[in-house]
Amino acid sequence: MSKTRITVIPGDGIGPDIVASATRILDHIGCDFTYDYALAGLTALEKTGELIPQQTMDLIENNKIVLKGPLTTPVGKGFTSINVTLRKHFELYANVRPVQTFEGTKAHYSDIDIITVRENTEGMYSGQGQIIDDNRTIAEAKSVITRKGSERVIRYAYELARREGRKKVTALHKANILKTTSGLFLEVAREIAKEYPDIESSDMIVDAACMNLVMYPERFDVIVTTNLFGDITSDLCAGLVGGLGMAPGANIGEKVAVFEAVHGSAPDIAGKNIANPTSIVLASIQMLRHLAMHTQAEQILSALQKTIKQGDRVTQDLGGTGSTNEFTQAIIDHL
């Protein structure tokens, strides 16, 4: 039986440090993956002159599974977001962002367990039709929502809820004002909800949802929404559990799946062995679940929970004095 090949993109800044942490844990638990390392981001630009070399795109196409560290897209200069490029090229239509409380963090809540499923390829966030006049006095952008795009991400959210034994799906929208785009998404959400009578369904205007997420987060289970709203609310949810360092992300398509740390590349601490690897470790757990390696996923999650609760070998942002390597070793010790 051939080994599963994983395309690994270490990324920029702290990316190589934290990705090495994740692969070290995966190797220790006996996942027996073959890693094909690939360049993207500023590191790729400096070495090849391209943000995403064709060789990287080919490896992603061939292997189908990607573990990715944070990437830096240069500001201005006509560069398109690397993440947006990957989502569009490989039709990674569902962005899945789970958050849960870990005992031992400085989070303000103790019982958070929410998954945000965000449409990943269309809507305002996709950047279509951006125009600004010569005098820079009027700027425009276009938001396009399709029935196909809405159906597939909403159905994905319900199937995810059913698969993981979740009780409720809440669709977020702004159909009271954006009557066409958000209106279509809401219409499709209510249609699909009828196909899943075993799951409680609700919908909520996005601004009210943000308020309720802060006041009553226990009322939410699975959230599904459009691209821009999902970008914002998933970060809000990360804040409920201690920040982006505690939140992973998966980008799921029909053929390719990319699992990533969702925080930035933090170039100011790159190479200093002090970065918190939790986000990419959680992303690797998402990857294992996607590959139906549930035993290994739960073992790593349990070891991570014990390490954070114990608290002495975690990184400074979690209140400890540990380095990235010491944090990683603590997880391995708990395995």
UniProtKB/TrEMBL annotation:
<dbReference type="GO" id="GO:0051287">
    <property type="term" value="F:NAD binding"/>
</dbReference>
<protein>
    <submittedName>
        <fullName>Isocitrate dehydrogenase (NAD+)</fullName>
    </submittedName>
</protein>
<dbReference type="InterPro" id="IPR024084">
    <property type="entry name" value="IsoPropMal-DH-like_dom"/>
</dbReference>
<dbReference type="GO" id="GO:0000287">
    <property type="term" value="F:magnesium ion binding"/>
</dbReference>
<feature type="domain" description="Isopropylmalate dehydrogenase-like">
    <location>
        <begin position="5"/>
        <end position="331"/>
    </location>
</feature>
<dbReference type="GO" id="GO:0004449">
    <property type="term" value="F:isocitrate dehydrogenase (NAD+) activity"/>
</dbReference>
<dbReference type="Pfam" id="PF00180">
    <property type="entry name" value="Iso_dh"/>
</dbReference>
<keyword id="KW-0560">Oxidoreductase</keyword>
<comment type="similarity">
    <text>Belongs to the isocitrate and isopropylmalate dehydrogenases family.</text>
</comment>
<dbReference type="GO" id="GO:0006102">
    <property type="term" value="P:isocitrate metabolic process"/>
</dbReference>
<dbReference type="InterPro" id="IPR019818">
    <property type="entry name" value="IsoCit/isopropylmalate_DH_CS"/>
</dbReference>
<dbReference type="GO" id="GO:0006099">
    <property type="term" value="P:tricarboxylic acid cycle"/>
</dbReference>
